[in-house]
Amino acid sequence: MILNDVGKYMLSEPLYEGIRVILNFTDEQYTPEYIQGISGAAFRIGGICPCAPTCTYAIEPIDFVKMLGHRAEHMEIGKEASERENILKKIKKEIDGGRPMLVWHAFTSYEWDVVCGYDEKEKLLYGRGSYAGLNEYAAADEKRFLNCDICPGVIFIGPKVSSFDAKKAEINSLKEAVAHAFSEKNADKVDGGEWVFLEGIKAYQRWYEDYRSPEKKRTAGDSYCFSVYKTTHRAAAGYLREIAPKYKNAEKYLIKAADHFQKEADALQKGDDLLSWDSPEGPDRENNIKTTEILKEACGQYILGINNIEKALINL
To answer: What is the pTM of this model?
Structure first.
């Protein structure tokens, strides 16, 4: 049983893009940019480490679904065989009813994926992920997600049951973007001798400062954050332009902010040969100098974008 015409991911993002894919298939239409913006993902940066894109969030995915007015149910992965069998039965029942769902680690690694089909005979699940199933549906063993060592489980998304207060959510997303950018999380521990997780501007600044060392190697954390943030922050520009006409007193500042996030994404794009998964690990002194300048430029545009969101909030 496979649901046809379930859309693909339009950007690399592990938490909310799958929600858009499901809602666009089952109920209502949202742009990728709007979902990234309203969820806060378009303005986030953390780490820099492999877990940052999945743990630096403004809202839990299930709460985001509910905020949009939809019924949502979360099922954790049980340890007993009967519990695991029940969750697979539930997945297949939902698909039989024409409803895709989010399954953690179904096709990608440690991300929410969209499951929209199954093969009972071959024991396979089919669907979409941020880097899986971008053309034909991805396929994986139906128990793959059950054997993940970090297992948030499954989120079943139901019909719309309440209204979505778009204005409230949009303004909150702007406030959260600013608060996150100026986060002081762990800032007092930076010189403590051990690596600590940073967020917002401080994470961005440490990212390019790290590359000032000629011994710095490109890591999985660099590449994963790069692959996500270069697309989510480009979505910030689209989101701000989409909502700007609604707020006439703040419109010019939202448009200016969008321009800066566009420039940030353009700057990051110049780092493909230095930070993507297939780029050299190094260390390479010349490449590190180039990477430092690219990330510093991107960070500067991010800061200018946030500053203009601050001005927009004053004028709302």
So the answer is: 0.95
